Amino acid sequence: MKKLFILVAAIAMLYSCGGNTQKTQEQTTPETTQIGDGHNARNSLDYQGTYTGKVPTASGEGMLVSLTLEDSTYVKKTEYIGKKEIFEDKGKYTWNAEGNTVILDGIKGAPNQYFVGENTLIQLDMEGKKITGELADQYILTK
Questions:
Q1: How far apart, in whole angstroms, are the C-alpha atoms of residue 83 and residue 64?
Q2: Which of 3, 22, 62, 112 could be cross-linked to 107 through a Cys-Cys bond (beta carbons 3.0 to 4.6 Å apart)?
Q3: Domain chopping of the chain, boundaries
Q4: How far apart are CA 73 and CA 67, in angstroms?
């Protein structure tokens, strides 16, 4: 009787282990694997606040940029170095589909997209692509 009980217990244990193994394999098949975890700059970073930096220009010494992001609005102040006039743009911003770039509505003829990082905004070019080359690190605004 003891041997029968041990045999039944051993079979039950093997069956339960085998069932879990099969379930784990099913969960990791490509059809059910989640590619992303759903996190992006929009829902994971404390991005709201004021960012500043000195950005290069085609002529002159560059410009000082201050960009403040609130819930869905922005204020961008631009001052060309050597000139006393400050230009101010205000409006709403939206996010790109990936949730990693803000797009400033209402700005025409100038870059209006910024990639959002941890305490940084990286100005993108007119086509929304990262700026490359030796001056690339000068297009970063910091909080």
A1: 11
A2: 112
A3: 1-33, 41-142
A4: 11
pLDDT for 43-90, tens place per residue? Answer: 667 899 999 999 998 888 899 999 999 999 999 999 999 888 899 999
Q: CA 41 to CA 115: how far, in whole Å? A: 9
Do the bridges between strand 101-104 and strand 113-117 make them parallel or antiparallel, or are there none, so unpaired? antiparallel
The count of residues in the chain is 143
Architecture of domain 41-142: Beta Barrel (2.40)
In this prediction, what percent of the chain has a pLDDT beyond 70?
73
Global pTM reads: 0.71
Query: How many whole angstroms separate alpha carbon 103 and alpha carbon 114?
Result: 7
